[in-house]
Specification:
Layout: H1 42-65, H2 76-121, H3 123-138, H4 145-152, H5 156-180, H6 184-192, H7 197-234, H8 240-249, H9 253-281
Helix pairs in contact: 2-3, 2-5, 2-7, 2-8, 2-9, 3-5, 4-5, 5-7, 6-7, 7-8, 7-9, 8-9
Amino acid sequence: MSGGDAIPEFSKSKSGAKSGDGQEVSLTNLLAFASGPGIKSGKEVAAILAVAVIIIGGIELALRLFHVPLYIMPPPSSIAYALFDEFPLIAPHLGYTLVELVSGFTIGAIVGLVLAAVITQFPFAEKIVAPYILLLVTTPMLALVPLLILRFGFGYTPRIIAVALAAGPMVMINAATGFRRVDSAKIALARSYGASTLQIFWKIRAPMALPMILVGLMIGAIFGLLTAVGAEMVGGGFGLGNRLTTYSSMIQMPQFFAVVLILSTLGILIYVLFFLIGKKWASWEA
């Protein structure tokens, strides 16, 4: 047989399957709707917009009819006005939060992926690392923020560390799960062709685990965002969390909910980013 030392390519598609017959691999079962048929008609777009207008308009009308004070619940129009009016002041704090999120998430994701690779290749290492990972997962990172602030001050450092500690375990757990879910028959066949452990990892385990890795990255990024905002609320004079604390203490609720809207948008963008990455690089026919 020619090329006896080469590792064979494995295809997930069934023979005779037509393009588009299979279902895309969704990032999670909870998000499976995203891998179904997309919006195909203007009527569907109009229906979605109509529901949004009804909900927002209904809230606006109800709050104004019942004369709900702004300091309890501002109407959507006041929130929108505050968002555009205050955005020049909020924008620098948004930048601070993004720096903390990106820096901490990058560190946590790299460490998490490395640990996932190590514990799946060396089971003894898992027995050593697992208790500490479980401790990090079950411990609210915000509880450690005051301690980190005492040690590192009120700058970026304690917040970045908190974000890394929140994101890393999520990435590691999901990545390790993906590395383990590889079909053992594929690994056995690759070994029969003389593949090394490193070749099996890069050519089989890593590509097949990519959907779960993306799940971990998405969850880790969202946890990192929540941790960054919480750390900013605990201490420090900058960041979106600081703006939430400031606006709530001054009873400026339209500005408060404007910041909440920005944070919600960031969360949606994180999901969309990893969904698009998964659709591009981790989607195949069943």
